[in-house]
Write a structure and sequence with these properties.
Elements: E1 3-6, H1 12-19, E2 24-27, H2 29-48, H3 72-83, E3 87-90, H4 93-107, H5 116-127, E4 131-132, E5 135-137, H6 144-153, E6 158-161, E7 164-167, H7 168-174, H8 186-191, H9 195-225, H10 235-239, H11 244-256, H12 261-265, H13 275-278, H14 280-302, E8 310-312, E9 319-321, H15 329-357, H16 359-362, H17 379-395, H18 417-446, H19 456-466, H20 479-490, H21 493-500
Parallel strand pairs: 1-2
Antiparallel strand pairs: 3-5, 4-6, 6-7, 8-9
Length: about 500
C-alpha cells in the first residue's frame, strides 16, 4: 500500500493517490512540529483575550461580538452545526476523500493553529476509509460542504464505513475512534478556506492531463483513417508559430503515426484537410496551455495557507492577520477555463467522428456498416457525441463571474469557485465519452483497411479497443461498449499501449 507522508512539497499526484487509489497518509516530524508550534500561539491568544476573528470573536457579521473564554469550545461546535447547510445528492467518495486530504495539507501549513490531535483524527478517517456524507449543492465557494466533514469529526452527521451509511458517531465507534472536542479556532478553520474548490479542481485537472494526451491519440487515429496528410504537422509550420502546446501536439501526432503505411500512401492525397484534422496542433495546443496554467495554480494552492486569520511569527511575537486567502478565485477561474478548453476539444473530436461515419466525406461504408445495408452501424453514436458536445457548451459558461452577497453584506463578494470546480468534474466525464466514441469509430474504420498497415501505436490502440468490443458486423446495443472504452481512457490504458509501442505522448 502506498504511503503519502506530509511535511514537504505537496503535489497533484498525492491528491489522486489518496482520493482515488486509497494511499495511506502519515505525518512527518516537521509537519507535527509546525502544527504544534502554531497551536501554542492560538492558545495564548485565547488566554489573552485579544480581538482576533474566530478565536475570540464570532464569525461573519458577528465578528463584532466578543466570545467569553468559557464559551469558546461551545462556539466551535456551534460553527460546525450552523454551517452544515449543503443539500441534495452526495458528493462522490473520491471527491470527499480529496477534500479531507486537502484539509490536511492546508491545516498543517503551520499558520492555521489547528490541533495535531484533531488532524490525527481527520487522517484516520482517510486511512480507515470512513467517508462523510457530503451533500454537493449550495456552496458559494466555501463553508457549506466542509462542515459536513466537521460533523463526522465531532461524532455527528453521517458517514459511510464498510459499505454502511451510519451516524458519524457510530462510524467512529466501529473504527475504534473517538469524536473530537473542537478547540478554539478549529470550527472556523474547518469551514474556511478553499478546500472543496481545490479538491475538485485537482481531480478534474488530473484526469484532464490524460484526456489531452488521449485526444492526440484519437485525433491521430482519425487522421489516418480519413486519409489525412501529416504535412499539416510539419515541424517547420510549428516553428513558424512556436506555441509550446502546438509544437508538442504536432510532435505527438507525428510520433503516433510513425511507420504508418496508410499515412505515407495518402500523404499527398488532398491539397489540404478539413480544419478538424489539420488544426489539431493549434486547438489541442491551446487546451494544453490552459492545462499548464491551471496546474501551476494548483501546485501553489496545495502548498499554501488559505485560512482566515493566519498566524505568523514576528519580531514582537506571534501575530494573527485577518485577510482573505480563503478566496477560491484562482482555482475557480482555472476550473472555468478548463471547461472552456475541454468544450473546444470536444467540438473538434465530434467533428472528426462525424467525418468517420459520413460516407460522403470518409470514402468508407455508410456509418461504418460492415454488413448489410439494413444495419444502422455507428450512425447513432455520432448523435450521442453531438448531444454531449451541446452539454459541454453549457458547462463552459463561467461560474466565477456570478455574485450573490451573503452574511448581512459582510461578504458582499463571493467567488463561486466551487460551482466552477464541480462543473469541471462534469466536463471531464462528458469529454471522456466523446473521445471514447471517436476511438470506437476510428477502430471500426480500420476494418476497411488491410491489416497491419497502420503505425505500431495505432495498431496497439486498435488491439486494446478490440479487447473490450468486437468489430461490429450487425447492429448491437452500443452503450456497454462506450462505457468500456471510456474506462480504458479513464484508467490510462490507451496511453499505456501507445507507450508500450515506443511512443510517449506529452502535454
Amino acid at each position: 500500500m502506498k504511503i503519502v507522508t506530509l511535511g514537504g512539497r505537496n503535489s497533484l499526484e498525492q491528491v489522486a493517490a489518496v482520493a482515488r487509489y486509497g494511499a495511506k497518509v502519515e505525518f512527518s516530524e516537521e509537519y507535527k512540529d509546525r502544527v504544534n508550534a502554531c497551536r501554542a500561539h492560538v492558545e495564548r491568544f485565547s488566554r489573552e483575550g485579544k480581538a482576533i476573528y474566530g478565536i475570540t470573536t464570532g464569525l461573519g457579521d458577528n465578528c463584532r461580538k466578543f466570545i467569553p473564554e468559557e464559551e469558546r469550545v461551545k462556539i466551535q461546535r456551534n460553527h460546525i452545526l450552523a454551517h452544515t447547510v449543503s443539500v441534495g445528492e452526495p458528493l462522490s467518495e473520491e471527491g470527499v476523500r480529496a477534500m479531507m486530504f486537502v484539509m490536511l495539507l492546508h491545516f498543517g501549513s503551520g499558520h492555521t493553529g489547528f490541533r495535531l490531535e484533531t488532524l490525527e483524527l481527520l487522517k484516520e478517517l482517510l486511512n480507515r476509509n470512513i467517508t462523510p456524507r457530503v451533500p454537493k449543492h449550495g456552496s458559494v465557494g466555501y463553508i457549506g460542504l466542509e462542515a459536513h466533514i466537521g460533523m463526522v469529526l465531532i461524532g455527528e452527521g453521517k458517514a459511510w464505513y464498510q459499505g454502511d451509511l451510519l451516524t458519524g458517531g457510530e462510524a467512529l465507534r466501529r473504527a475504534g475512534l473517538k469524536p473530537a472536542v473542537l478547540g478554539s479556532k478549529e470550527g472556523l478553520t474547518l469551514v474556511s478556506g478553499t478546500t472543496s474548490v481545490t479538491a475538485l479542481a485537482c481531480m478534474a485537472y488530473y484526469d484532464s492531463i490524460i484526456l489531452a494526451k488521449t485526444a492526440d491519440v484519437a485525433g491521430a487515429f482519425s487522421l489516418e483513417m480519413l486519409k489525412g496528410t501529416l504535412k499539416a504537422m510539419d515541424e517547420r509550420l510549428m516553428q513558424a508559430r512556436p506555441h509550446p502546446g502546438q509544437m508538442q501536439t504536432a510532435a505527438n501526432i507525428r510520433n503516433i503515426l510513425s511507420g504508418s503505411q496508410i499515412a505515407e500512401k495518402y500523404r499527398d492525397y488532398r491539397v489540404q484537410d478539413a480544419l478538424s484534422l489539420r488544426c489539431m496542433p493549434q486547438l489541442h495546443g491551446a487546451v494544453k496551455k490552459v492545462l499548464k496554467d491551471g496546474l501551476e495554480a494548483i501546485e501553489i494552492e496545495l502548498n499554501s495557507s488559505v485560512d482566515n486569520p493566519l498566524i505568523f511569527e514576528g519580531e514582537n511575537g506571534a501575530e494573527a492577520l485577518m485577510g482573505c486567502n480563503a478566496d477560491g478565485t484562482y482555482l475557480g477561474m482555472a476550473s472555468d477555463f478548463l471547461c472552456i478548453a475541454l468544450a473546444d476539444m470536444v467540438k473538434m473530436a465530434e467533428r472528426r467522428t462525424d467525418r468517420l461515419v459520413n460516407r460522403h466525406i470518409s470514402e468508407l461504408p455508410p456509418f461504418l456498416n460492415a454488413s448489410a445495408d439494413f444495419n444502422d452501424g455507428l450512425m447513432m453514436i455520432q448523435y450521442t457525441a453531438a448531444g454531449l458536445a451541446g452539454e459541454m457548451r453549457l458547462l463552459a459558461h463561467p461560474a466565477v463571474v456570478d455574485n450573490v452577497p451573503t452574511c448581512a453584506n459582510q461578504e458582499d463578494y463571493v467567488n463561486m469557485g466551487y460551482n466552477a470546480a464541480r462543473k469541471a468534474c462534469d466536463a471531464v466525464e462528458t469529454a471522456r465519452y466523446v473521445l471514447a466514441i471517436e476511438l470506437i469509430c476510428a477502430a471500426q474504420a480500420k476494418e476497411f483497411y488491410p491489416a497491419g498497415q497502420s503505425s505500431p501505436a495505432i495498431e496497439a490502440v486498435y488491439g486494446k479497443i478490440r479487447e473490450v468490443m468486437p468489430c461490429l458486423k450487425e447492429d448491437e446495443a452500443l452503450e456497454p461498449y462506450m462505457e468500456e472504452v471510456k474506462r480504458l481512457i479513464l484508467e490510462g490504458e490507451i496511453l499505456d499501449v501507445v507507450k508500450e509501442s515506443g511512443v510517449l505522448v506529452e502535454i
